[in-house]
Specification:
single chain; alpha+beta; five-stranded antiparallel sheet; two-stranded antiparallel sheet; 10 helices; elongated
Length: 364
């Protein structure tokens, strides 16, 4: 007995595949989307409104005299880049996933619906999208761990910070965590920023190992993650863009965090922002020199010493101390930014062979 996987009665001849297939409430007109696949092959692909849906039939798609569409094989697989609800009868149940297999001998697909728009499922969809990052970070972490015993001692500090950033991201987006975050959560973006910056450094350092055959796959995996995160967050020309080397990416993080700390202080009525404006001015000059140099190396820049003097100054170190010892309400706002700032400074210390003071380093 044939079981229909696409149970919507519509005239196939008057519909164009992919046009108006996904409704504003998230429901999918499967017949309209897959009509052009009839008797041709066992795969239907729908691309619309940022949604990519693939329906694979183990046989071929066919239709009945009443314009119902079915799979001539025994199995149909629905997969997408976003979570959906697949409602079936028979042995199958309502399913919320990215990839669903239906045995078409026993179950008829009644409807397919994405969880967005009018269904108030936007938050759940954005939470579901973190699964892609979660899996990517886990894969990158496995690749990074391959280098633990392979890289030079001078590179291990950078690798440790990169692994730490990956681990933080994995913990943040753990599907088993009590608090579910969405992919647009500021913590996810800030963590991605760290991964891109420290990954940029590792990309440069790992070129020393690209002749080691057993590490090539791991190197390619890390490079691919960093490249795709840059594009995804629009950082091709900014934080870690085409002109940015590792040094430039780190300096941009430093400047961003100092700017945001200054903005917070100003919003709370602080009038003396000299420690911030001074280091922003000097770091800006250094950043320009680094970006203009062919190597992108901050170690060779005279302005690096000016930056070190500004960072190590009693005035700025006293300001960092006040931030670290602030009251709980204020500290909760600034602490994540300080952590990122100090991690970037640690990497600058390693890359530039400097002695920038890091508060609390003696306790780590």
């Amino acid at each position: 007995m044939k079981k229909y996987i696409l149970g919507m009665v519509l005239a196939l001849t008057s519909l164009t595949a992919g046009a108006g297939v996904i409704a504003i409430n998230g429901s999918v007109n499967l017949v309209a989307g897959c009509g052009s696949s009839l008797s041709k092959n066992g795969q239907c692909v729908i691309n619309e409104s940022g949604i990519n849906l693939t329906i694979s039939c183990s046989g071929v798609f066919q239709k009945t005299d009443t314009n119902l569409m079915y799979c001539s094989g025994y199995k149909t697989v629905f997969s997408s880049n976003a979570p959906f609800i697949l409602e079936t009868d028979g042995q199958a149940t309502v399913t919320d996933d990215f990839n669903v297999e239906v045995n078409t001998q026993y179950a008829t697909t009644k409807s397919l619906k994405f969880k967005f728009g009018m269904t108030n499922g936007l938050t759940e969809s954005l939470q579901g999208a973190t699964g892609i990052l979660y899996a990517s970070y886990n894969n990158a972490l496995n690749a990074a761990n391959l280098f633990k015993g392979e890289i030079a001692k001078t590179h291990r500090g950078h690798m440790t910070r990169f692994i730490s950033a990956l681990t933080d991201g994995i913990t943040l987006m753990d599907p088993k965590a009590k608090e579910k975050v969405t992919i647009v959560d500021w913590r996810v973006q800030e963590n991605a920023r760290l991964i891109v910056v420290f990954g940029t450094i590792m990309n440069e350092l790992l070129t020393d190992y690209d002749d080691v055959a057993r590490l090539k796959t791991a190197i390619n995996a890390l490079s691919s993650l960093i490249s795709q995160l840059r594009v995804s967050y629009g950082w091709e020309r900014g934080l870690a863009g085409t002109v940015s080397k590792a040094s430039s990416a780190l300096l941009q993080v430093v400047r961003l965090e100092i700017q945001e700390l200054a903005s917070i202080k100003m919003a709370m009525g602080e009038s003396n922002l000299t420690p911030y404006t001074n280091i922003l001015r000097i770091s800006g000059v250094l950043l320009s020199k680094v970006n203009a140099s062919k190597s992108g190396d901050m170690k060779a820049q005279r302005e690096m010493f000016d930056f070190a003097d500004a960072w190590n100054s009693k005035e700025f170190q006293a300001e960092l101390g006040r931030l670290l010892n602030a009251g709980p309400d204020f500290k909760n706002i600034v602490l994540p930014k300080i952590v990122m700032l100090l991690k970037a400074i640690e990497s600058i210390n390693d890359l530039a062979d400097m002695e920038l003071i890091i508060p609390g380093a003696e306790n780590r």
